[in-house]
Every structure is written in structure tokens, then in C-alpha cells.
Design goal:
The chain is α+β, with helices and mostly antiparallel strands. 34% of the residues lie in helices and 20% in strands. The strands form 7 sheets. Strands 2-3-4-1-7-8-9 form a 7-stranded mixed β-sheet. Helix 1 packs across helix 4 (135-143), helix 5 runs parallel beside helix 20 and helix 8 packs antiparallel against helix 15. Residues 448-457 have a biased composition (Acidic residues). Residues 621-652 have a biased composition (Low complexity).
């Protein structure tokens, strides 16, 4: 019998087939070779069942039916990809071994595990665990397949994460929604992230600006001029500062101390996903989701970078030869000159700044592969350029500086000067053509005063500590204290990574990675979720809290469920999930605690006073022109089990918020309801009366528009489109409405 390989997506399956079974026959839903049958999952084929699958009474949201805590979670097939699930079931009957080739991470492990559990597949399992999709890596991965049992703890962690999110989301969202009669979304990760934004907004609103003054002395010694900042308590008295300036201006001065110290600046660490998202946001204003999607395309489609969903900035000893191959592959490209200047001797297994196996768990840092990039879109090229330059910098020596610190006294007043003299550019030559942008995007600390005091120069600097000095001018600078800055997606990702703690130290940042909010793979989706449910708005790059988002946090805290908004608590949950994946914590104990917490949430909300409807209404405070009133909830009113909110079948409930967009009249005979857009689909306003009509937004490789849904309802079909069929193949055709009772769609192809 043959071995069945289950990849996560069609492209990945075809890549595997090309590497190990190049003569495999293409059967549309799978590829079959002499030894292997390769098929794919098309994402999540299996989902956790909605509450009404346990009991019909849950079709209606009622706080008296809460908490909903299943003894055993039911699994149901995703109706949009059911045909592919049947394909896997049939193929498995012909095979005596399975290979889990889904993404090498917690979510990929979960996708395979759900299929295995639902189909009751009992064959032995091997695990393909690779970090890029080049043919060489795939072949090496199959030569060293791991036993599936080695990943049992990771499966437990993935299952615990999924079920915990379901329990908190379903119970929290239903409890707050039914109590306050407005659709409110609550989640294990999204709610504490919202609380971070809320707390920052409150700090900004409470901030009172203070005017203060700085005094800058301008000094001359022979041909040398330099500037120094007055040393003393912050000055808030304008006339007093002006008098001080007059006191020292045109007066002789003397150098009290002059220190020279040589320093080195080493290259920044290799990228993990969160760091890449932060820098792409700072430099190109990419959203976290855009960076993740673009990186995924560079990995899956172009195969020019390694697995992007990593939380490590390091590599292992096995990666060092790969790094040298990738360096060689960059010869003859736009990076040719930088490759020529690289020192290969700097990248070796004893360089702990690069190679640190103890800090690599599932995947190493993001690296370019040895495949030459071609056909990249402009955005893909930008992201690839960030990754390649960071990679190349590891092959360059540190930048070297001489730091001159001068203390100058004039009329018994002290001025401090710091001059940073460049000796060797080192790795910074990689960024010489974009120095200003680089400096802007890599500053981790906002120490404005220190920045004012330090001056970086390229030419030699020196003074005679015994020589005469003149203070030829003194400039008074008027400044205002600044409020905390609004989060942008880059700074919010940083806060999520450290569970809200302001951490600048890189070692502490590494230590916090296990207890951040969410994972590198899910943080972008969490931010997008907050946008879609109408809790935050984007005003330029700034993230601004809406009135609805503000009220939700205040209601949760007012109910006495502070833990639900606590980044530290959620960070500890994430740490515990990581411990489960390593086999050092119990998944049963974790789930026991989650169930207790879900019950506590319901008990607290049940006795809470109902909020006024107007508490959710109002305009988003403008940082720029507001995009919309905050009472407007966007498409993500409800959602699936990933973000643990209300069930898909209740998606149209968003209309209770009073601001959904009417799309069309429900076509189900005798219904008379209206179709509204939800997060995942277009559902009927008569869902409470039992109407099950829904058209899923993502269908056959398309993200359906309002106009296309209207065409389906009114004409029964769309215009001709480029589609992706259920078996993963591309085709030209029309999407048709097959069932007017349920909204089931099909295709007509030529």
C-alpha cells in the first residue's frame, strides 16, 4: 500500500510532489505516484461545532442558557470544503501510512489532528517538519521524517488553545450581548489587546502638557566648534532661562573633563515575524496582516524565504551551511556588490549572536533561501529587501565609533557634549543608501533628551582639554512635554509580544516571547478582528479607540472581570500553552481553569446592570478626519472558533447594532428577511426565526463583493470569474446559487 501525504494547501502539496514524486499523476484533488499519494487540506476542513449542534435551545441567545461547557467538543466538517474532506477519507483507505505535511507549527498540527480525529484515521503517522519549500529541503525532510508521536504534546496545546478560545468567546460574547442588547465580541486574546489600546488612550486624554526650556551652548576652540546642553533641573521659568543664556554668552569657558571611548555597534538580530511586521509597518506602513500575507507569498509562492511564522531571531548549527549557500545565490543579483564585500568567516556556529540553538524551538529566524527571486510584486520586493539586507548584515563587521564626552564650564554653569565619531561603517554600509529611514525605524528607545545631546559626525573630532574655549552663543529652546503616542500596528505588536510590558532590553524581550499575547502567526488576525468588530479605527497609521471599544472595556472591568482584560494573565495562558507543547504542563488542568473562568464571566455579567444603548454610540475621537462613527460595527460582528466569539449561524445578529448595510432581500421562499454582511458571510435578518440562508464571503477562491452577492440572489449566478475549485485547481467560470433555502453555492465551468 502507499503512503498518504496531507499538506495544508494545494500549492504546498504540489511542491512536495514535484520534489519527491515528479512523475505523479495529477488527479485534480490529489497527485498519485508510485510510492506516495499527495493531497491537501485547503486550510481548516474541520471546525468545532457551534452551540446549537449540542442543543437546539442554543439557537436563541439567552443568558439563562449560559455557560455552555461541552463535556466533549463536537467536530463538524466545513461545508465549503466538504468534498476535499471526502477525498482524503477515500484516499486514506488505500494507504497504510500517513505523513502530516501541514505547516510546521501549532496551527498546522491542529489542522491535521482535526482531520485525523474526525475521520478516525488509525494509520501510523510521520511528521514532515521543514522551514522552507525548496526541493532540496523537502527531500531532506522526507529523508528524516519524525515519528508523529513526538508531536503529541504540540497537538494537545493546539487543541487546548482552540477549545479555550471557544469557551471564552462563546460564553463571553453571548453573555455581554444578551445582557446589554448590543452585539459585543469578547475573546481570550482580543479583549486584553483592546484593553492595552484603551489604557493608552486614557493616558493620552489625561495628559497635561508642560512647557519647559533647554539651553544649548555653542563653543569654539581654535577651528573647532561644538555644542553642549546645559546640565541641571528641567527649567520652566522662561525669563530665568533667558537670563542664564545672557550670563554665559560671549564668556570664556574651560573644559572640566574630556573622555574618549571606542564603541562597536553590532548588526541587528535576524528577523522573527513580529520584528519583521514592526519594521515593515514603520518603514512602509504595512499592516501586520499585509506583512504576514506578503511573507507567506514569498515563502509559499516564490520559495525565496524560509518559514515566516517564527518567533526566533536565531539559527541552529545546521542552518550555517544554508546561510552560506544563500549568500552565494545572491551573487549576480541586485545585492552582488554587498555579497562581494561580505566576510564569510563571521557567520559560524560559535557566533552566538547568530547561532543559538537554545533559542530556536519550532523554526529558526527568517532567512532568504538559495533560490533567486524573480517576478516579485513591488510590495513583495520591499519585504524581501528587508529580509535580505538583515541577512547580509550578519556577514559584516560591527560599526566602530569613537564617543567623545566633553564637560564644559562657563560662569559656573555646566554643559555636556557627546560627539559620536564614525571610524568604520561596518555592517551599516548595507543601509548606506537608506540611512535616514533606517535610523528612524530601528530606534527602540524614545530618549529625546539624549538624542539632542548626542551628535554623530563622519569627520575626525578632537579638542585640547587644556586649551582656551569661548562660549560664543547660547540658544534657548522652548519645548513641551509630549503625551504617550497612539499605538500604530508596529508598536502594538511590540506591546502584544511583551504582554503590555514596556521592554527595551533584547534579552528580556526574548524571555517574554513565551508569554506574549497570541503568537506571531495570530497577532495580525487579532488586530484585524478589532477593526472588523468596530472597536478600533485607523486614522492614518494611528490606532484610535471607538466609543464602542471604550464601552466594552469599561463594561468588562465594571463587571469585575478584570482578568479578561489583563495582558499579563493572557500572557501567562500563552506561556502555559507553550509549556503544554513541551510536555511540562497539564492540558487537563489548563482546561479545568478555563472552564471555571468561563463560568465566572457568565456569573458576573448576569448580575450586571444593563448599559444604556447610547453608551455605544458616538464619533471616534479625531486624530485625523474620522472614518466612521464608532457605533458602527463592521463585518466582524461574529466569528468562528478561532477568535472565540459568537457562532457563524448568528452572523446577521450584527443588525442589532443598528448600522449594518442592507444587501438584498432574502430569496428563501416565504422568508421576507433582509441579507446583511457579516464577518464571514451574508446572512438573513430572520435568523432568529430559523432562516439558515447564508452566502459565505470566501467562496471558490473569491472574496465575494456586495454586487456579486446581489447577482447571485437576483439572477442566480455571477458573471464569469477566475475561480479556485474545491479540489484546488484554477478554472474560469461562474458561481451559481444552488440552494435558495440554505445559500449553498456551486460553479459552472466551461
Amino acid at each position: 500500500m502507499k503512503t498518504l501525504i496531507i499538506a495544508e494547501k494545494p500549492d504546498m502539496g504540489r511542491n512536495i510532489a514535484a520534489a519527491i514524486e515528479p512523475k505523479a499523476k495529477n488527479m485534480r484533488s490529489h497527485l498519485e505516484g508510485e510510492q506516495y499519494i499527495i493531497t491537501w487540506a485547503i486550510g481548516h476542513l474541520i471546525e468545532l461545532a457551534e452551540p446549537d449542534q449540542y442543543d437546539d435551545k442554543y439557537k436563541k441567545w439567552n443568558i439563562n442558557h449560559l455557560p455552555i461547557i461541552p463535556d466533549e467538543f463536537k467536530l463538524i466538517p466545513n461545508p465549503r470544503t466538504y468534498d476535499q474532506l471526502k477525498v482524503i477519507a477515500e484516499l486514506a483507505k488505500k494507504c497504510d501510512m500517513l505523513v502530516n505535511a501541514c505547516d510546521a507549527g501549532r496551527e498546522g498540527q491542529h489542522i491535521f489532528s482535526l482531520i485525523q480525529r474526525h475521520l478516525k484515521l488509525n494509520q501510523p503517522v510521520k511528521r514532515l517538519w521543514i522551514s522552507d519549500l525548496t526541493s532540496e529541503t523537502i527531500r531532506n525532510g522526507f529523508a528524516t521524517l519524525k515519528d508523529g508521536a513526538e508531536y503529541e504534546n504540540l497537538t494537545r496545546a493546539a487543541r487546548s488553545r482552540s477549545e479555550a478560545d471557544w469557551l471564552i468567546g462563546m460564553n463571553g460574547s453571548r453573555a455581554f450581548t444578551t445582557k446589554h442588547n448590543v452585539l459585543l465580541s469578547v475573546g481570550r486574546v482580543q479583549t486584553p489587546v483592546l484593553a492595552l489600546i484603551y489604557d493608552r488612550q486614557k493616558q493620552i486624554e489625561a495628559f497635561s502638557s508642560l512647557k519647559f526650556y533647554e539651553l544649548e551652548g555653542h563653543f569654539t576652540q581654535g577651528e573647532t566648534t561644538y555644542r553642549g546642553m546645559w546640565q541641571g533641573e528641567r527649567m520652566t521659568d522662561g525669563p530665568k532661562v533667558e537670563a542664564l543664556a545672557a550670563k554665559v554668552k560671549e564668556k570664556p569657558a574651560r573644559i572640566i573633563s574630556y573622555e574618549v571611548k571606542e564603541t562597536k555597534e553590532y548588526p541587528f538580530k535576524l528577523y522573527d515575524l513580529t520584528l519583521l511586521q514592526r519594521e515593515a509597518n514603520g518603514k512602509y506602513a504595512f499592516s501586520a496582516k499585509k506583512t504576514l500575507d506578503t511573507a507567506q507569498a514569498l515563502y509559499e509562492k516564490h520559495k525565496v524565504i524560509s518559514y515566516p511564522r517564527t518567533n526566533s531571531n536565531y539559527v541552529t548549527e545546521q542552518n550555517i551551511p544554508e546561510m552560506h549557500k544563500s549568500l552565494s545565490a545572491l551573487q549576480g543579483t541586485a545585492y552582488h556588490e554587498l555579497v562581494q564585500g561580505a566576510n564569510r568567516n563571521l557567520v559560524h556556529k560559535n557566533n552566538k549572536f547568530i547561532c543559538n540553538p537554545s533559542k530556536v524551538e519550532d523554526h529558526h529566524a527568517i532567512l532568504p533561501t538559495n533560490r533567486k527571486a524573480s517576478g516579485l510584486s513591488p510590495d513583495e520586493q520591499k519585504l524581501y529587501d528587508l529580509i535580505v539586507r538583515r541577512f547580509l548584515s550578519q556577514f559584516y563587521p560591527p560599526a566602530e565609533y569613537k564617543v567623545h564626552t566633553v564637560m564644559t564650564e562657563v560662569e559656573q554653569e555646566m554643559f555636556k557634549t557627546t560627539v559620536k565619531e564614525l571610524l568604520q561603517l561596518g555592517w551599516k554600509v548595507i543601509y548606506a543608501d537608506q540611512k535616514k529611514e533606517k535610523a528612524k525605524s530601528t530606534k527602540g528607545k524614545e530618549k529625546e533628551e539624549e538624542e539632542d545631546e548626542e551628535v554623530e559626525v563622519n569627520e575626525p573630532f578632537s579638542i585640547d582639554p587644556q586649551g582656551n574655549v569661548l562660549c560664543h552663543d547660547a540658544i534657548v529652546k522652548e519645548k513641551d512635554t509630549q503625551p504617550p503616542k497612539h499605538f500604530n500596528e508596529g508598536t502594538l505588536l511590540k506591546a502584544m509580544e511583551s504582554a503590555g510590558k514596556q521592554i527595551e532590553d533584547e534579552e528580556l524581550r526574548d524571555a517574554m516571547k513565551d508569554s506574549g499575547l497570541g503568537t506571531p502567526a495570530t497577532r495580525a488576525a487579532t488586530i484585524e478582528r478589532l477593526k472588523k468588530v468596530g472597536y478600533i479605527d485607523m486614522q492614518g497609521k494611528k490606532i484610535v479607540l471607538t466609543q464602542k471599544g471604550r464601552t466594552v472595556v469599561e463594561l468588562i472591568r465594571g463587571a469585575g472581570i478584570e482578568l479578561l482584560t489583563s495582558p499579563e494573565m493572557t500572557g501567562q495562558w500563552e506561556r502555559r500553552l507553550n509549556e503544554i507543547s513541551r510536555g511540562t504542563a497539564s492540558d487537563e488542568q489548563f482546561m479545568h481553569n478555563v472552564k471555571r473562568f468561563a463560568t465566572l464571566i457568565v456569573d458576573k455579567v448576569r448580575v450586571q446592570t444593563r448599559a444604556s444603548k447610547t453608551a455605544f454610540e458616538g464619533e471616534t475621537p479625531p486624530a485625523a478626519a474620522p472614518k466612521r462613527g464608532s457605533a458602527r460595527s463592521s463585518a466582524a460582528s461574529t466569528g468562528g472558533t478561532k477568535t472565540a466569539v459568537a457562532a457563524k449561524k448568528t452572523a446577521p445578529a450584527k443588525q442589532t447594532d443598528g448600522a449594518s448595510t442592507f444587501i438584498a432581500t432574502c430569496p428563501r421562499p416565504g422568508c421576507g428577511g433582509s441579507l446583511f454582511m457579516g464577518r464571514k458571510g451574508y446572512g438573513c435578518s430572520h435568523y432568529k426565526e430559523g432562516c439558515k440562508f447564508v452566502i459565505w464571503k470566501e467562496s471558490f477562491g473569491r472574496n465575494l463583493t456586495d454586487a456579486q452577492v446581489q447577482a447571485l440572489v437576483n439572477k442566480g449566478k455571477t458573471t464569469k470569474l477566475k475561480l479556485v475549485l474545491a479540489d484546488g485547481t484554477a478554472a474560469d467560470g461562474r458561481i451559481v446559487l444552488r440552494n435558495i433555502d440554505t445559500g449553498e453555492l456551486g460553479t459552472e465551468t466551461e
